[in-house]
Amino acid sequence: MVTVSFASWKRLLRPKPLIQQFEIRDLIARAVEYQKGLRRAKSELAPPDPGWYPWDSFGTVTLLDRMLTGPRRYLEPMLGTDPVLDIGCGDGDLSFFFESLGYRVCAIDNPPTNFNRMSGVEALKTAFNSSVRVEPIDLDRNFQIPIRRSGLALFFGILYHLKNPYGVLESLAAHSRYCLLSTAITRFAPDQSGVNHLNVAFLAPGDGLRGDGTNYWIFSEAGLRTLLDRTGWEICDWMVSAAEDSVLWNAQRDERVICLLRSRSFPALPATQLVDGWHVLENGAWRWTERRFSLTLAQGDCRVALRVTVPGNLATPLTLTASVAGETIATHMIPAPGDYEFAQHAPAGDQVLLTFEVDGALPPDAADSRERALVVREIEIG
Predict the structure, then answer these.
(1) Class for domain 6-263, per CATH?
(2) Beta strands in 124-232 (DSSP E)
(3) How far apart are CA 151 and CA 153, in angstroms?
(4) φ, ψ of residue 114 in degrees (nearest 5)
(5) How many helices (H) and strands (E) does the chain have?
(6) Chain centre distance of CA 196
């Protein structure tokens, strides 16, 4: 048997520098391996009180091979460069997994109803030196989605815990392009009359469902489809599966839906056009810039962030300035080679030309005839 230290797992669980595109079976295989490493890493950490989140956060992921069809079996084209939103994150297992694939992630949960009051996700974030954004939010109390844009929302096993599922889904549709959702449904009323064809939802009594007072609503399949339609979602893929180990209404076996949804109200980003000072795209992922480079925003009044790599053979320290119409809007110091994120707020207006300038660059040489300043890995707008 080969033993792997926590330090080794910490290295493995850190995010990779570039997003890779996986067919869903490959992604599931990676998830299974990641889960093994995560369990081992947890075993070497002091558990939070009263313990680690006890339910399998990866269980729904393994069903995606049966549910997703066609081009949707590749998640990366759907997400683009937008972050993943993990709602009801538990200990953040899926958040850290998607981060390991190269995605930015925002993890949300509600401390009073989280198993260990979110001390588990915070402990792992610290242990892994993770950049996952962790936000304590109660989705039933005047909440705001903490990020403006998400390529994919993970919404597993949350819907029946919400007092206002309509409002949450409607708000989520305004912030997320796609959503992977799983939830329990019912074919029968408590008196065992059939309701699967009716647009209905049942409000749970005071002790909730199955004795869980945090459960509020359960929908029929038709009711769930109607709810999703009316809150701005289009159903892309849909699968119903039995949950043999769960009983509803004291007799009926539980059923669950897992589905991929596409928002009809997710706002399209204003078009951004690279103008001067950019070299060709390399490896489908990054570009060299010249010392001076620029881009045009269809609409201003937005945050523009560059994620860049400063090469090791470029003399530092350096200064990167951002300007619009000759006026400097931000100045960034580059103390040493490495990876950086430089963000600035572009002023309002149409067709805003944003110009960047570095006070140093690699000159053309025998190996490369181009002037090279920075490697831009990603541009985030919004």
Answers:
(1) alpha beta
(2) 133-136, 150-156, 176-185, 201-203, 217-219
(3) 7
(4) -70, 145
(5) 8, 19
(6) 32
The Cα–Cα gap between 146 and 87 comes to: 11
Answer yes or no: are the C-beta atoms of 335 and 360 closer than 8 Å: no
Domain ranges of the chain: 6-263, 272-381
How many of the other CB atoms lie within 10 Å of CB of 191? Answer: 6
Q: One digit per residue, pLDDT tens: the chain, 382 residues? A: 333 344 444 444 544 444 456 789 999 999 999 999 999 999 999 999 999 999 999 999 999 999 999 888 988 777 777 899 999 999 999 999 999 998 999 999 999 999 999 999 999 999 999 999 999 999 999 889 999 889 999 999 999 999 999 999 999 999 999 999 999 998 888 888 888 889 999 988 877 777 777 889 999 999 999 999 999 999 999 999 886 666 676 666 678 999 999 998 887 666 678 899 999 888 777 899 999 999 999 888 888 889 999 999 999 999 999 999 999 999 999 999 999 999 899 998 888 999 999 999 999 999 899 999 999 998 888 6
272-381: CATH topology is: Jelly Rolls (2.60.120)
Residues forming a β-bridge with 179: 153, 261
Q: What is the CA radius of gyration of the chain?
A: 24
Q: How far apart are CA 67 and CA 180, in angstroms?
A: 11
What angle do helix axes 221-230 and 165-173 make, rounded to 10 degrees? 50
Amino acid at 342: F
Question: Which residue is it, tokens 């204003």?
Answer: 270
Please calculate the CA angle 116-119-122 and round it to the nearest 5 degrees: 145
Cα 207 to the center of its chain, rounded Å: 33
Two tokens at 242? Answer: 């039995």
